Amino acid sequence: MGRLGQPVTVESIRKWYSGEARPRPEKMKALARVIRVDEGWLSLGLTPLMTPEQKATRNIFAEGSINLVAGMMQISGANIAFVDPKAPEAAFADFHVIMRGRAYLIKIAVGVLSEGKFKFALPNEFERVQVIGVVKLSAGNFQILRIPTAVIRKHARDRGAYKEIIAVNNGGELTVGKDVLPWIPDFETLDLAA
Questions:
Q1: Overall pTM surpassing 0.85 (yes/no)
Q2: Which one, of 107, 109, 113, lies nearest residue 129 by Cα?
């Protein structure tokens, strides 16, 4: 662990192992990275929602997915303004959009493929935003879809800091339970108010 800037004595490790002491938060984080496990699982025994590799994949695609959707909306005539990082809505929204004279807050949710299913992490404040999902089907092939509020209300699992829905591919359609997540073929005809 010393290679990560977190020196640890043999006595500390002995105490952790015997249950006499717990690692401090900075050491817990470093230890989780070294042994490649979820920090929540290591520190609290919580079942991880995603492996560290899945989280890394989601984070890599998240910023690009936000830019992809914002760019497609702009090309379709919408006006985009990214949320100020200091604004309260920055905790649950990615950008503002004005489409056909109406303003919306948008949250982009990246579908992370895990065991043949797409997991989407959604903000707890999902009712205050329009959620648009992005899934990577293959290299350079992405699908964009709506994740309606009603579907989130009905199927979301509470994960504390966020909500999660899991979609499966049923013959080319992504479904959550029996609800189909509608694909967005283009943004020129999309009605976010519907």
A1: no
A2: 107
pLDDT digit string (tens) for 156-181?
988 777 889 999 988 888 999 999 99
pLDDT in tens, 134-152: 998 777 788 899 999 999 9
Tokens of 186: 């283009």
DSSP for 122-157? E-TTGGGSEEEEEEEEETTEEEEEE--HHHHHHHPE
Most distant CA atoms of the chain, gap in Å: 65
Cβ pair 47, 39 in contact under 8 A: no
DSSP state of 173: E
Do the bridges between strand 130-138 and strand 102-114 make them parallel or antiparallel, or are there none, so unpaired? Answer: parallel
